Amino acid sequence: MTKDGAPRQTSQEVERLRRRYAIRHVLARCGVYGAAVLASLVCALPFLWSAVSAFKQNRDLYNPESSPFLFNEPATPDHVRFLFSDTPFLTFVVNTLLVGALVVVLTLALALPAAYSLARLNRPWGTPMGIAIFLVYLVPPSLLFLSLTRVVVALGLEDTIWSMVVVYPTITVPVSVWLLIGFLKAVPKDVEEQAMVDGYSRLGAFGRAVLPLVFPGIVAVVVFSFTLTASEFVYALAFVSASPEMVVSTGVPTQLIRGDVFFWQSLQAATVTMAVPIAFLFNLFLDRFVTGFTMGAVKT
User: Fold this and answer.
1) Is 262 helix (H, G, I), strand (E, B) or coil?
2) Average predicted confidence (pLDDT) for the chain
3) What is the share, in percent, of the chain residues with pLDDT greater than 70?
4) Could you list the residue ranges forming a coiled coil in this record (predicted)?
């Protein structure tokens, strides 16, 4: 008996309780990992379906009794070969990468100074200005279409990839500024002041002391801007009609959907070809991307 009158547990009872808790812990961990694996398989099914469909023969694809995830007929690379040899798919990919890279550079060049000034300069209009910049992102593209068309025509950029380079920052910059404002507010002002005491100018202190600390936020901006640019459809379709200047989001449907004829296997091959490298790069920077969004959201 213990001092308070409760019965003392024997070593066998303690060992039995320890084993019971250990079994519960293992079962809980198995349940969590099992749910994660199940969720991953569910998310991967569309990609698996696209990969299998890209190599299916027509009679296998259009047979309702065939399994969509299995090759009921021998696989064929003809549709993938058609995508790369009979359509300017590689030109679309190059245009997409070029537009995405230029838009990312412009977005950082515009968003970083704007976010830094709004986060550091104590002005009464700072917060309303930041909110107003973010509200620009919420304006539907259909409302900005006419005004942006006038800008593109006035600059003589119609039917060129430069029209998208000019237009896309109107979508990416507002969100990037809002994100970077919150992230810059998480950096203490003492960091810049100490750098300026050491002899750096404000610009030098920003480049040497602040930028390394906000690198996760910059990665978030880069990933967000590039993915948004690569998937945008309305402006790309409206401002570019010449096939050599198209990007993947408009060029692939234009080339592979002709009237009521769908080159379905080639469409799926294009989807897989673009999804794999983007997913690989996204996973490389996933931790910094999530950190940038979460920390920026907390400090906004």
Assistant:
1) strand
2) 82
3) 89
4) none
Q: Alpha helix (H) ranges present in 55-88? A: 58-61, 78-85
Contact present, 136 and 174 (Cβ < 8 Å): yes
Cα separation, 113 vs 121, whole angstroms = 11
* Contact present, 70 and 200 (Cβ < 8 Å): no
Decide: pTM greater than 0.70: yes
Q: Are 231 and 141 in contact (CB under 8 A)?
A: no
Burial of 191: CB neighbours in 10 Å, binned 0-12, 13-18, 19+: middle
Structural domains present in the chain: 11-76 (no CATH), 80-299 (1.10.3720.10)
DSSP count for the chain of H helices, then E strands:
15, 2
What residues are paired with 261 via a beta bridge? 258
> Counting beta carbons within 10 angstroms of the beta carbon of residue 242, is it exposed (0 to 12), middle (13 to 18) or buried (19 or more)?
exposed
CB atoms near residue 8 (< 10 Å): 7
pLDDT in tens, 135-187: 777 777 777 777 888 888 888 888 889 999 999 998 888 888 888 888 888 87
- HSE-up of 25 (CA within 13 Å, CB side)? 6
Name the one residue in this structure whose structure tokens are 């919150």. Answer: 182
Burial level of 167, CB count in 10 A (0-12/13-18/19+)?
Answer: buried
- Of 271, 25, 234, nearest to 144 by C-alpha is 234
| Residue recorded with tokens 């002391």 | 209
